[in-house]
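Moderator note: this is an archived Q&A kept for reference. The question asked for a predicted structure of one protein chain; the sequence and the answer are reproduced below.
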Amino acid sequence: MPLQSQTWSNLRQLLSELPRRRLRLLVFVLLASLLQGLVDVFLVALLARLVGLIAGARVEDYLPGIRVFGGGLLDQSSWLVGLLIAAFWLASMIRFGVSLMQSLLCADVWNDFVNKVYGNLVCQKYDFFVRQRTANLSEKFNRILNGISTGVISPLLLIAGNLVSVVVLLVGVVAVLGLKALAMFALILFAYVLASKVVTPYLRLASKQRIRYSRRINLLLMESLRSMREVQLYAAEKYFISRFSRDGLIAKRYDRIDRLLPDVPRLVIEPAAITVLFLVGLVPALTMGDAEAVRSAIPSLAAVLVGMLRISAPLQAMFRSVNRLRGGLPQIEDALELLSLKPVRYLIDSPGVPTPEGVMPRRFIQLKDVSFSYAPDAKQVIQGVNLTVPIGSRIALVGRTGSGKSTLAHLMLGLFQPTSGELLLDGIAVTDQEVPAWQANCAFVPQSIRLIDGSIRDNVAFGCDPEDVDDDLVWGALEAAQFDDYVSGMNYGLYTLIGENGIKLSGGQRQRLSLARAFFRGAKLLVLDEATSALDNKTENNVMQALDIVGRRCTTVVIAHRLSTVKKCDLIYEVEAGRIVHSGDFDSLCASSSSFRDMALIEEG
């Protein structure tokens, strides 16, 4: 079938992503599985010989060297019992070793895939993350972490290892005991495959439904926890509890079926195998009343019985692994999508990337004839913009919501690449190789702040090794952001934990912490996107005074709706529908732009 062909093609492609050293280790695991099968064959042969001796039956010596057990019954039995005990211990140790190697190999493969995917993700350009839904990326990444490791790689290793052991054991037992054993094993395997075929459709349905409802539960959990304020205000607790309970009950029901069905073939086959074994191997002799034939059959029956028990566990493991693999195969396409991502963004330490000082302009930053759209077939949100920012100046971007102010800031920061036009530094176009060096000179304080679940110190010195952080610089940044007094009053000072995304702080405190992060960076270009919108007038005034001191050491771009924030700016650009419609200082814009004048009048009340 084409689907199957595509699935196996995807599987081969996934395995091709593995380093060669992992494939060498896989070969070693298979060789260990081969040894495990050989030891099991040796066990069966020894047991057949021992039972034959005890029963007084003549056993054909199919294995070379079997005649070393000379002497009387007691001598031979003593040798065989000793060897059997040693062989059982050896088989258990080898089985443990194979399982350990499989687990280690699976963990190494997990680490290889995860590191590669994460490395590929962080080396994508920023517009990649704008186009993608973060929840989708996170969900796919978690699927790489868990699904591919436990649903594809681990089952493959188990199938390969157990298949080698089963084949070696079957061939060995048939070689020792002859065609009668082959016929019995063939019947048992046929019955096992038949039972598996009957169970598999129900197992597949249960697995699919379990995954479906588990995803619904996870989505419901995330949505309700993220919206807890609204849940409580709208008294929606019962609604979410009811949905969670209902979906959880259904998921648990399918989970029970998913766990039970893989054991059904074994529960059916083991008694069926015993029935076949005695019907074929013992009943004919019993019906004929031939005591010698009964004694002769006992060693073979014992050997086949032990062989069946030794094969039963690997077969069951293979059946479980095949079904886990079937459940994991659909996830391969998403895994390959992330694994196939190529790093397209230079890092600051990539070869050929200049120093931040080497690209820092001395005269101006310029957007020249810049247009931009979020997708090739999408409408242009920036259209033919020409914008110049003199070094050391403070400029402002004002305009209605959705006019393109933040997008222009992202273009200046090198986060977006223009659809047409150029970002120029002192008249020289910025190349992809120079973008990391340019961004090392920049800091950005967004309106929608993202803080890490750590301490005040961790957030101010974002991305820095804690051992390399100078606390004096952290306090200086907090002072500039008018946040030092509050932090010094905390029980643990800089080491106070702020919770997930700063949940333990107010909106204004989170904004000041974000400002401190920007000040700590010592950036040459500081972009403030509604960075003071959550501050009261007094605190905003204090922060702007700090900017007068700190900001004159850098170039500042302010995006604001409150015109009081931009009064002291050297130059103001008014943005409308992705275009610069007016520019000038505050007074000249009030005189020349009716829309700017209206905004000023509305704010003055």
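Archived answer notes: The chain has a mean pLDDT of 81.
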